[in-house]
Each structure stands twice: as C-alpha cells, then as structure tokens.
Specification:
Layout (H helix, E strand, L loop, with lengths): L4 E4 L2 E5 H5 L16 H24 L5 E4 L11 E6 L5 E5 L2 E6 L2 E5 L11 E6 L5 E5 L4 E4 L4 E4 L11 E6 L5 E5 L5 E4 L5 E4 L11 E6 L6 E5 L4 E5 L3 E5 L11 E6 L5 E5 L4 E4 L5 E4 L11 E6 L5 E5 L4 E5 L2 E5 L11 E6 L5 E5 L4 E4 L7 H8 L2 E3 L7 E17 L4 E15 L6 E9 L4 E8 L3
Antiparallel strand pairs: 1-2, 3-30, 4-5, 5-6, 6-7, 8-9, 9-10, 10-11, 12-13, 13-14, 14-15, 16-17, 17-18, 18-19, 20-21, 21-22, 22-23, 24-25, 25-26, 26-27, 28-29, 29-30, 31-32, 32-33, 32-34, 34-35
C-alpha cells in the first residue's frame, strides 16, 4: 500500500506506513510473514488502535471553549472592554476604559496615562498596520502610534484633527490613514504626502460628524464610514462620495456601528436600532430584525465574518449572535459562560477564536471549533431533572459527569438560586421558590454548559 498522510480532527497521524510498520514489539513475527493475511489484519488493527489513541489524546488535551479575563482573575485594568488588535506573532492588544493591555502568551503588560506614551486611559479603537505599528484611538487624548520603541501623538494641538475623541481608525491599501472622531469632528484622511482632507457635514455629503466605524474594501480601496445618526458614507476613489441613509436608500437605520464584507461582495452592517442590514451586490438592501427574522436583538454593536462565511455579531442585550446561512442563534448568560449580555465589541482573531469585550464582565474568548466528544455530549444530553414539574418543593438533578455548580433563573432572566455541587447527583430545595417556569443552568469543569427548563408547581 502506498504511504500517504492522514489527518484527523486537525492532528497529523503520521503516514500509513509509519503507523503499521513492524517494530521489535511486533510479537517477533518473521519478515516472510509480514505480508501474510494474518499480518495484514494485524497491521489494520494496529492502525485503528493508533488512530483511536490519537483521538483520545486530542480530546484529553483540548482547551476549553470559553475563557474569561476580568479584574478579579487577571491583570485586566477594567471590566469595560471596547477594542482588540492582533499582531501576527500572536500578541493581543486590549483597549479598556481604564488602560491598554498587551497580552503575550500569558504575559500581561499594562499601559496607563501615567506611563510614557499613552495619552489617555480610555482606548476606543486599535489598528495594527502592515509594518506592525500599533495605532490607538482614545476618548479624550487623540490618536497615538507605537512602533515598539517610539510613541507618536496626533491631537488637536499638533495636527489638523479638530476632535480628540478618536472612535475609529484604519489605513487603506494606498497607505492613507483614515481617522473617525466621536465627538463631532467628522472624518479625516491623511495621505502619504502629508496632505490632510477633512470630511464634515455641510461641506460634504456626510450627514453626521460622529464616525463610529470605517471599513476599507481591500479589492477596490473604497471606504465605508458608519456614523451615529447619519447613515453610511461611501467614498469611491477618494473623490466620489455617496451617503446612504433612511431617507435616500434602503438602509434600515442611520446609526451604523460595524461593517464587514463577505466573499460575494455583500456588505453587512451592525445597526444600533434595527438589527442586521445587508447591502446586496450589485444592488438592493435586506434587513434582519427580531420583527423580520429570528435574530435575538435589534441593537447590534459590531459584526465580523469567519473563514467559513459565518457572521458573528455583538449585541447590547442578547450577547454574541451567530448567523450561519439563514439560521440565527446566540450565546448569552442563560445558555453559555458569557455572563454579560452587553457585548460592546467583538472581533475574530487570526486563529479563529472570537474575542468579546463586555460592558461589566471583562473579556471572553470563545473558540467555536472546540467540539465536545460524543461521550461528553451524550452525558450532557442525558441529564435528568425529576420530578419535573416539582410538585412537592424538591427536585433531583442527575448527570453522568460531575457538575461544578448550577444556577436557577426565572423567566425574566433574574437569578433566584445558586447551587454548589461538584457532584453527579444533588437534591435541590425549591420550597422557597414561587410557582412558575425556571431555567436551570449547569456548568461543567470542561467549559460546557447545559440549560434545562423546570416547572415549580407546588400544591
């Protein structure tokens, strides 16, 4: 049989010849029996055994699907997180309301206004350019760049910028810099010759001077600027400007907080009050809101797209939202370890993990590729809660895997009881819980979460 590489679940299993080649432990079968039918069967069994061992090993060392960094368990300076940036070497930059973080393989470096370079603690946007220069926009200190040695500041005192609240920043394919202000200064372009162009209301088609996001089309170098209450400005070849707003187009909302393009040139927009919008190629608009679709929120904060074409969105009130084809789902405090439903910003890192900045609970890192083993999923699906309905004030919880802890929420999402377990069976006293429908959320040690609905109907 010809040697060839076999890959399973992302692990290289060696070549087929490597897996079945005889060794000193092959029961001393002679070389002239190596190609016998019995030996061929032995080789097949050996290969299957090696395959199973590799799969078991991969399951045992798998990383958890969710990681949380907050002020209690890490050096994160504040639980309000608004921006991320990713270097090619794996370094992650995190912008919070109270400082900037450089996270390098578990090593934390914190930058404050008191340290040299950073002009303000509240970091609202991060961009890393092709030369690995870091750019940070702050809420009151202007824009600053950092090349790992020198910090360079651009603000109202030393540049044409008229507003020190820098909410968005990017660099286009011609290496021109685009700066969006959040305090009413409008949009600025600084080209490679040092010439600045100022786009603002009344002197351009721009309908709002508050710029929430800027997207550059890598194929055409066209720019798209999402605004607060002014729709989206489209800039073609830096000369032709078109504004899309409710009055002049099919855009469903005038506040655009995130923009991303898919492989077929459709543009997806995260709106503040009307869900997800899409500008179809070559023309037309569609809108996905809770009124027109199964999306869980009207209020989106950000949007990104993964390598498989799946859309991910942050929301104000429904956690992390996923759109896969025509299907919407979401991860929130009742069905996942994500304990804050207000996602201020989310971005997909180079390794496919989703970095989530929340309003009150810090950073969550979610790896959608982590899939529980068949046995783990079977154990979760076999959880028993009985009697259900709980008619005598008690119910029992049974699981094939140890549950670390559990929490009970009412239909409005309010926590009514926490249960410390670290066991596979426990009796839950519901005598002080009013009759009604509740949700029992169970946390496992490997990061899995399961939710069961229970009915309390005491006689």
């Amino acid at each position: 049989m010809r040697s060839r590489d076999i890959v399973c679940s992302g692990f290289l299993i060696l070549s087929l010849r490597d897996c079945v080649q005889p060794t000193a432990t092959s029961y001393l079968l002679s070389s002239n029996t190596w190609n016998s039918p019995m030996k061929k069967l032995f080789r097949i069994k050996s290969f299957i055994f090696s395959l199973l061992m590799m799969l078991i090993t991969s399951i045992c060392v798998a990383q958890p699907a969710w990681i949380n960094y907050n002020i209690s368990n890490s050096l994160l300076p504040d639980n309000s997180v608004r921006s991320f940036g990713f270097e090619k070497n794996g370094v992650v930059w995190i912008g919070t309301d109270a400082g900037l973080v450089r996270l390098d393989n578990g090593n934390w470096t914190i930058y404050h206004v008191a340290t040299p370079g950073l002009p303000w603690d509240d970091v609202r946007c991060i961009f890393i350019d092709r030369n690995n220069v870091k750019w940070f926009g702050t809420s009151l200190g202007g824009l600053v760049s950092y090349d790992d040695v020198i910090w360079t500041l651009y603000n109202t005192g030393n540049s044409p910028i008229t507003d020190d609240f820098i909410r968005s920043f990017t660099i286009d394919t011609a290496n021109n810099k685009w700066i969006g202000t959040g305090g009413g200064g409008g949009l600025f372009e600084a080209d490679t010759a040092g010439v600045w162009t100022h786009y603002k209301m009344f002197s351009s088609p721009l309908m709002s001077n508050n710029i929430a996001c800027i997207y550059v089309d890598s194929l055409t170098n066209d720019k798209y600027a999402g605004t607060i209450n002014g729709g989206m400005l489209y800039i073609h070849e830096d000369t032709i400007l078109t504004n899309y707003d409710i009055q002049s187009s099919g855009i469903p909302d005038n506040t655009i907080l995130g923009i991303v393009k898919d492989d077929v040139q459709n543009f997806w927009l995260a709106t503040a009050a009307n869900g997800l919008a899409v500008k179809l190629n070559p023309f037309g608009w569609l809108n996905y809101s809770p009124f027109t679709s199964s999306i869980a929120s009207y209020s989106l904060t950000s949007v990104d797209i993964d390598s498989a074409g799946v859309l991910w969105m942050g929301s104000v009130d429904a956690g992390l939202i996923k759109k896969d084809g025509l299907n919407f789902s979401n991860y929130y405090n009742l069905n996942s370890p994500l304990t804050d439903n207000h996602v201020q910003y989310m971005h997909i890192g180079p390794d496919g993990r989703i970095w989530i900045g929340t309003e009150t609970q810090g950073v969550f890192v979610f790896d959608p590729s982590v899939i529980s083993s068949v046995n783990e999923m079977a154990a979760i699906n076999s959880i028993r809660v009985f009697p259900n309905p709980a008619t005598n004030g008690f119910t029992q919880l049974q699981s094939a895997n140890a549950i670390e802890n559990a929490e009970i929420f009412d239909a409005a999402g309010k926590s009514v009881m926490k249960v410390k377990m670290n066991a596979m069976q426990v009796n839950i006293d519901l005598r002080d819980v009013a009759n009604g429908v509740y949700f029992l959320k169970m946390f496992f040690g490997n990061g899995n979460v399961s939710v069961k609905k229970i009915l309390v109907n005491k006689k």
